[in-house]
Amino acid sequence: MSDKISVCIVGSGNWGSAIAKIVGVNCATLPQFEKCVTMYVYEEMIDGKKLTEIINTTHENVKYLPGHKLPENVVAVPDLIDACKNADILIFVVPHQFIPNFCKTLLGKIKPNAVAISLIKGFDKAEGGGIDLISHIITRHLKIPCSVLMGANLANEVAQGNFCETTIGCQDIKYAKTLRDLFQSQNFRVVVVDDSDAVEVCGALKNIVATGAGFVDGLGLGDNTKAAVIRLGLMEMVRFVDVFYPGSKLSTFFESCGVADLITTCYGGRNRRVAEAFVKTGKTIAELETEMLNGQKLQGPPTAEEVNYMLKNKGLEDKFPLFTAIHKICTNQLKVQDLIDCIRNHPEHMMKTQKSDKSKGGKGGKSAGACVKKPSYKAPTPCCQPKSGDDTQKCKFHTFNYRVTPLKAKNVTFRLVPKGEKKEFAIMNASSNNMYLFNGFRTRCGKGLPLGMRALSGASKPVRALNTGLGVLATFCAYKSAKTNAK
Ligand SMILES: NC(=O)c1ccc[n+]([C@@H]2O[C@H](COP(=O)([O-])OP(=O)(O)OC[C@H]3O[C@@H](n4cnc5c(N)ncnc54)[C@H](O)[C@@H]3O)[C@@H](O)[C@H]2O)c1
Fold first, then answer.
1. Tell me, what's a Pfam family for it (predicted)?
2. Per-residue pLDDT of the chain (487 residues; tens, 9 = 90+)
3. What's the Cα-to-Cα distance from 206 to each of 22, 153, 198, 299, 358, rounded to whole Å?
């Protein structure tokens, strides 16, 4: 890198424009950065005027981030090579479909010692069956290191300056401080980790889960079902990283790029919104994308397709029933009403008591035969064979639409509050040392909050903690949000 670090933002959509507000201010104020930030803008005509001209005169991206002023040192450039040729840091923030072509255009036209950071959430199909991470494509084509930035960062809220967190997955830790300084602000807090691939995979996969969350909203199934979809989605994300990117850290899922991004996208993002409309209107995803997104791109359905391509090639579709069902619904191979049937006997609903759980940190584990899958769902009867008094207790609860994952964890007590009823009742005694996760009820902590955190500290294995913590936490968030909305 040269003395003053010069920055280019490749992309000017909703997120590209929001991040330009922060990066522009940092480059104008921090001495290590060149003040002028170039921003590649795909040229479009708006009311007879070029978008680049509008941005450079009014300092507003009227199409993708209306109502927000960009710093004046952010300069819109319609030519990709012109925008990038002098940059030491290239921030890639365009829908992932455009990246292969962008790389072809930029090959040999950028500084050889430039570094990249991708804010793009999505994959590309790899030749021969598989997926390519966008950061890997950038590195391979442009021969420069590429870090990633992902987090619970809905662009409009970041542009408003609301507090949030983000995660940078740094390829080479020597760039960590510079990248953090470039993006961090009072209300945009950056955590840098070295688990770059896992950070990026989280950012892409959560859009699939958000599509599923939108289907649940469209079907009107309520917050508990949505929490179950979020939790199962998280577990499939963990499993996916475990299978395809071994060596990644479970702790990465607890950064902003993991749980937090998943929750925000399942409640606030465009994937959720369009998926809900898909159910309610009967229109196709493509029609809704055109009608509802004003030129913005959906990431969930194409990512589901790319993941399915990979799972199918490896014969792993049945290990990822939620991802598979969402892809099939988006491509009209499955009715949206069948979504829940596809996840009713999810691999995550296996027995996970200490005796039967053979899993090692995050592997999901095999059933030790205690939980028997039923071929027919007609009767709401327990699906597991009781082996002890405690198992009998659990089996009373495990029904057609009410899936129970038995766990062992210490020092955790919680109560269940059936939806619509005021009465609380305790279902577990801490001294029994057994904890049951009931996915169908609103859940509240026995002794104050946060329950998820107490569950995490109480469980002895990370995978159990994740299983318990997220399901409870997500349900709790839904509970809080329902209460807030009701006010
Ligand atoms: N919007 C968010 O809240 C948000 C937050 C975090 C991450 N992301 C991720 O950031 C990436 C970019 O999303 P966004 O919201 O900024 O984009 P967007 O969907 O708002 O905008 C589309 C962008 O694509 C460009 N474009 C359209 N047609 C083009 C073409 N033919 N060739 C080249 N460029 C073209 C447009 O100029 C625009 O910059 C995505 O991967 C997204 O998942 C988005």
1. NAD_Gly3P_dh_C
2. 458 999 999 999 999 999 999 999 999 999 999 999 999 999 999 999 999 999 999 999 999 999 999 999 999 999 999 999 999 999 999 998 899 999 999 999 999 999 999 999 988 888 776 789 999 999 999 999 999 999 999 999 999 999 999 999 998 899 999 999 999 999 999 999 999 999 999 999 999 999 999 999 999 999 999 999 999 999 999 999 999 999 999 999 999 999 999 999 999 989 999 999 999 999 999 999 999 998 888 899 999 999 998 899 889 999 999 999 999 999 999 999 999 999 998 999 876 665 544 444 434 333 322 222 333 333 333 333 334 444 444 444 555 666 665 554 444 444 443 434 333 333 333 333 333 433 333 333 333 323 332 333 233 233 333 445 555 554 444 444 445 444 4
3. 24, 13, 12, 10, 27
- 242 closest CA partner among 203, 202, 208, 207: 202
Task: Please work out whether the CB of residue 94 comes within 6 Å of at least one atom of ligand 1.
Answer: yes
The minimum-distance atom of ligand 1 relative to the CA of 15 is 16
12: Cβ below 6 Å to ligand 1?
Answer: yes
**Looking at ligand 1, which atom is closest to the CA of residue 94?**
12
How far apart are the CA of 296 and the centre of ligand 1, in A?
6
Question: How many other β-carbons are positioned within 10 Å of the β-carbon of residue 247?
Answer: 9
* 336 Cα: distance to centroid of ligand 1 (angstroms): 27
Are the beta carbons of 357 and 332 closer than 8 angstroms?
no
Residues in the chain: 487
Tell me the best of 46, 162, 297, 299 to mutate to test the pocket of ligand 1, counting ligand atoms within 8 Å of each CB and taking the most.
297
Q: Which amino acid is at 362?
A: G
Catalytic residues: 206
399 lines ligand 1 (CB under 6 A): no
| Residue 184 CA, ligand 1 centroid: distance in Å | 21
Q: Is the minimum distance from the CB of 299 to ligand 1 under 6 angstroms?
A: yes
Phi and psi (nearest 5°) for 450? -85, 130
- Cis ω for the linkage preceding 71 (within 30 of 0): no
Distance of alpha carbon 238 from alpha carbon 242, whole angstroms: 6
272 pocket-lining for ligand 1 (C-beta < 6 Å) = no
Question: What number of helices (H) and strands (E) belong to the chain?
Answer: 18, 17
DSSP label at residue 388: S
> Counting atoms of ligand 1 from 1, which one is nearest the CA of 155?
3
Q: Separation of 304 CA from ligand 1 center, angstroms?
A: 18
pTM: 0.76
Ligand 1 pocket check: which of 94, 119, 200 to mutate, most ligand atoms within 8 Å of Cβ? Answer: 94
DSSP state for residue 69 in the 8-state scheme: P
